[in-house]
Specification:
The protein is α+β, with helices and mostly antiparallel strands. Helix content is 32%, strand content 13%. The protein has a 5-stranded mixed beta sheet, with helices on both faces. α3 crosses α6. It starts with a strand and ends in a 20-residue tail after the last helix. Residues 164-172 have low confidence and may be disordered.
Length: 172
Amino acid sequence: MKIRIKVNGQWREAETSPDRLLLDLLREEFGLTGTKKGCGEGECGACTVLLNGRPVLACLIPAFKAEGAEILTIEGLTPAEGLHPIQQAFQDEGAVQCGYCTPGMVLTAKALLDGNPSPTEAQIKDAISGNICRCTGYTKIVGAIAKGAAVLRGERPAGEAGEEQPDMMDRS
């Protein structure tokens, strides 16, 4: 079957089968390898993309279900020059180590900030709860999202590292 979807602002057509996943379509057909193939079971969040502005796990969605939808991948978030403020905040705050989870985290953060430009720490943690980071931990990620929010609100310049963040994941 042929489907038509808007990917990163451009309409694209592709042949697909009922069992082909959106993740595989994006990576294999369109070459958008920023969307990572992690667990393949919807547990890790590495394959997160925005579908009509909402974060979804591309490893769980049959490609044909995206017919007529708008998809944003990490490649579509990055402006022609430089980085999106959320990406810049991740870099500035040291919220990236291996980078495998980063595209999904950044897109999840974008969806959060699009709907709530001033999230609390608890709201940030809740938003990223479906994204697993195996090496950075979450303190710097939460701080990066908070910084990205401040930059997007015009309260802080982009490209400037912040102060040391307290351990926000301390549950004692």
